[in-house]
Amino acid sequence: MTVPATPGRRAEAGVLPLDGAGVLVPAETPFRQVWRSFRKDRLAMAGLVVLAALLMLAVLGKLFTEWWVLFDPATVRLPDKLRPPFSIPSSSIGKELWPTLGLYPFGTDELGRNVFARMLQGSFVSLSVGVVAVSISLIIGITVGGVAGFYGQRKLGFVSVDTLLMRVTDVAVCFPTFFLILTVVALLPPNIYNIMIVIGITSWMGTARFVRAEFMALREQDFVTAARALGLSEGRIIFRHLMPNAMAPVLVSATIDVAHAILTESALSFLGFGVRPPFATWGNILADGRSYIFDAPWLFILPGGAILVVVLAFNLVGEGLRDAMNPKLRRRASG
Amino acid sequence: MSGAEPQATPLLSIRGLRVDFATDAGSVPAVRGVDLDIGISETVALVGESGCGKSVTAMSVMRLLTGRISAGSIRFGNTELQSLSEPEMRRIRGAQIGMVFQEPMTSLNPVLTIGKQIEEVLTLHQRLTSSAARAHAVELLKRVGIPSAERRASQYPHELSGGMKQRVMIAMAISCRPKLLIADEPTTALDVTIQAQIMDLLGSLQQELGMAVLLITHDLGVVAHFAERVAVMYAGKIVEQGAVRDIFKRAAHPYTRALLAALPDPLRTAARLEAIPGRVPLPRMLPAGCAFCARCKHVFEPCPGVLPELFPIAPGHSAACFLHDPRRAPSNVPCQ
Amino acid sequence: MPQAASVSVNSGPQSPLVEVSGLRKYFPVRGGLFGGVVNQVRAVEDVSFSIKRGETLGLVGESGCGKTTVGRLLLRLIEPSAGRVRFGGEDLATLSSSALRQMRQRMQIVFQDPYSSLNPRRTVGDAIGEPLFVHGRARGAELERRVTELLERVGLPGGYRSRYPHEFSGGQRQRVCIARALALSPELVVCDEAVSALDISIQAQILNLLRDLQDEYGLTYLFISHNLNVVRHIADRIAVMYLGKLVEEADAERLFESPQHPYTRALMSANPVPDPDVPLRPVCLQGELPSPLDPPAGCRFHTRCPSAFQPCSHIVPEARLISGPHTTEGHRVWCHLYDDAPNSD
User: Fold this and answer.
1) Is the alpha carbon torsion for A279, A285, A286, A289 positive or negative?
2) What is the per-residue pLDDT across B5-41, written as a single tens digit (0 to 9) for each?
3) Residue A106 CB neighbour total at 10 angstroms
4) C285 chain-B contacts, CB cut-off 8 A
């Protein structure tokens, strides 16, 4: 196009000029639009920064506590038990047990283990439980919801696919999830992978309902009918047209589900059904610390505070995303 | 001052109304200086395409705006509506000025019976007892042509068809015998046969109650048969106003003429319609002069730079176009 | 003359492009714990018509009359409960799903709402190019070229192909939808209220574009609309529907000059012409539109018909041929007032 772009001329909702002058203005992708709106939400941005920091910490934690052991969460130093944060090891600690940094930044627990090291190890566990469990629940939820929403009208014997899947979902919702998890975990070997799987397969119902509702609404949209009229295959319609549009609310609920999964894991570990000691998670640090509430308050304040911050950060990001992706809340220039 | 001055003291008199909306990118003008008079028991149609500011103008009269009135005055009788407090304004709304909206589906409360909703207005403005209000509500429903009104009064909105709901909305709007009824696209959501009934009802109510009607619409067919006077809006300004015949038979502004030519007319079928090239400019990219100049066939040198005022053409008929400026117009005026 | 277009494209007798016979669609109403069928909406009942190649058939009626359902049945976007749609001589119902996908290249649809008819997460270039890609018509640079060409054909700069729908106005989106529908060079385009959501000046632009495209590519249109003036402008023939059934079908000019069915007359009389000197004398229809769950027996219009008489309430009227000026194609009416006229079948 030969029309020069006027500086500062910005494309916005429904306003590309007919003369083609807008060709020179970069296209605004839906992603960039959401990001522009998300960035304005200060709380959500704070949540995002916290999450990014925690993610880095979790990766570093895994690195420094298990592979290149700078901070050993399992070293027992009985003479130094219940030392407050930032205290220096006593003289009875030998050189080989001397902690990195030369002090206990978060104090020590009742066995003299470095709480900082244990928190680092726990951060990886907590985040990975959250992320993996939610990934499992998303896979189940999207499949069930997607099938119910897209193929719902098909008949299986005397009931429709939709009816069948949704009644199954209703039944799954009715189970007292937490007790189910407790029972299953009590029967299975208590390792972290089992916990991730159990949390995942007991928390997909919300996602399934979400995806089903989205698919059913989207199926009626003209662009999906147009895609069928153009002779596109069902697979292409589902993965190219329905999925990307249904993902926005699912993503939002997933961030909030991650917070929920982290809480569940902490609760399980707290009750002693989760990851077994000596392997540290925020939940079992908290559980161990509960006997020393008055003698060593850092033993519950630190892991408790960490759980609070992560859960809050995920919730803030989730809510920020929801607002940013909801075009009704997003303020627009109206002509 | 506009050229159209139907009576010595109009019922509603809007002068220099400007409304701005705040957006991400700063304030955007929606109405840019509107002057409009409505005489007692007169029907005035405000027409234009979407986004031209016609609904915003109506909402500013009711003071139900999300935007900000940045300048201008709105006088209703002898009252300046802008200077009223909110409680005083509430006494005007519903009682003195009634309003009917486009969407009869969403304008009624779904959890109250329609009888209750009418009674609410009556008890609020007229301090009727509840049994008197009930009787009056049924009376009103009969008046707007709802069959078996007693039974209907105890029904909920979802039990009524779209046309019936619009009748209920009209019953509510006229319940306190307002002097002015603002009808914002009252028939846009309805089918033609229902539209004819509703417009017929509005016409007979207007005669009977002697109220003025401000009809906001984009449907020129409805305007032609219902309005006495017409004001055409484009990009936040009135570009032409006059009696209905002035507008449809002797349109003076190039936009009005282009709009009429763009309509498919069942009486004269042509292979092609005279489409207006381009589209309405963005509110923040308006030229200093006439907003229509980029799409106008007759554009000449003052148009892009100077804002045209409403130039009188005949008594009660004026157009905001330099073609009608006796000082500037080129000798070969292409119209008429 | 609107007829001129069809005559110039078709010379001599030939088979119609689309033939619809006895088309019915009942939508089940589900309820109860296991979602059993408790009732059915009789959306379309025994509709038959045909469209010639290069012709525009207007389908008018008020909301809920089933005109949109007819459009979708025609493309087999929904399955008919009964009846047959023949497209270019082939019965759509007998096609396998892959044969149907091939057939869909020959018929397309443009919708009313330009906002919901484009996927908000894909560029308009993707939207227009996808059918070309999927059907193996073009790849790579050739695909780009075709998309650019199509955009320019509908009056948009080709450079807009990397844009997202939210950056376009309603009229521009409708142009994109038309370009998408044209991508596979279809023979039939169903325009489902395609200009109803647009402002007058934009509506005129789109109507002109549709007319130009028809002349250029010899397209056949089924133009569904509630706006009589628009249909009169664009259609060669018009069919009027009421509550799921056809009530009248005739040449556009003929239908407007002498509507025969009482419902068509009521519809025409209520249509305001944008001219204050043409008097508006609407025939007011009594009562409400009956529910399609339980449509009246006999003629479906008899409950509101000003000229209903004895047989209307129990005998379903058959199609009758009316003769008169401009009835080159036959003027069909489904009304007992014309029981003396010859049967059209």
Assistant:
1) positive
2) 444 689 999 999 999 888 766 788 889 999 999 999 9
3) 22
4) 193
Using the Cβ of A8 and the Cβ atoms of chain B, whether some distance falls under 8 Å is answered with no
User: How many angstroms separate the CA atoms of B109 and B107, rounded?
Assistant: 7
Contacts of C77 (CB under 8 A, 6+ apart): A225, A228, A229, C109
Report the C-alpha gap between B298 and B113 in whole angstroms: 55
Q: What are phi and psi of A49, to 5 degrees?
A: -65, -45
Compute φ and ψ for B20, nearest 5 degrees: -120, 145
Would you tell me how many other CB atoms lie within 10 Å of the CB of residue C156? 22
User: Degrees (nearest 5) of the Cα angle A246, A252, A257?
Assistant: 115
**C-alpha to C-alpha distance for A189 and A284, rounded to whole angstroms:** 17
Stated length of chain B: 336
Return the residue of B nearest to A14 by Cα: B282
A116 contacts: CB under 8 Å, gap ≥ 6? A71, A104, A105, A106
Could you tell me the pTM of the whole model?
Answer: 0.82
Return the structure tokens found at C69: 């359902």
Buried b (16+ CB within 10 A) or exposed e, C107-138: bbbbbbbbbbbbbbbbbbbbbbbbbbbbbebb
- Chain pair A-C, CB pairs under 8 angstroms: 123
Q: Tell me: the pLDDT tens digits for B218-265?
A: 999 999 999 999 999 999 999 999 999 999 999 999 999 999 999 887
Distance from CA of C171 to the nearest CA of A (A): 9
- Alpha-carbon dihedral sign for residues C289, C292, C297, C299: positive
The alpha carbon of B104 is separated from its chain's Cα centroid by a whole number of angstroms, namely 17
User: Taken in order C123, C125, C130, C131, is the CA torsion positive or negative?
Assistant: positive
The number of CA neighbours under 13 Å toward the Cβ of C152 is: 9
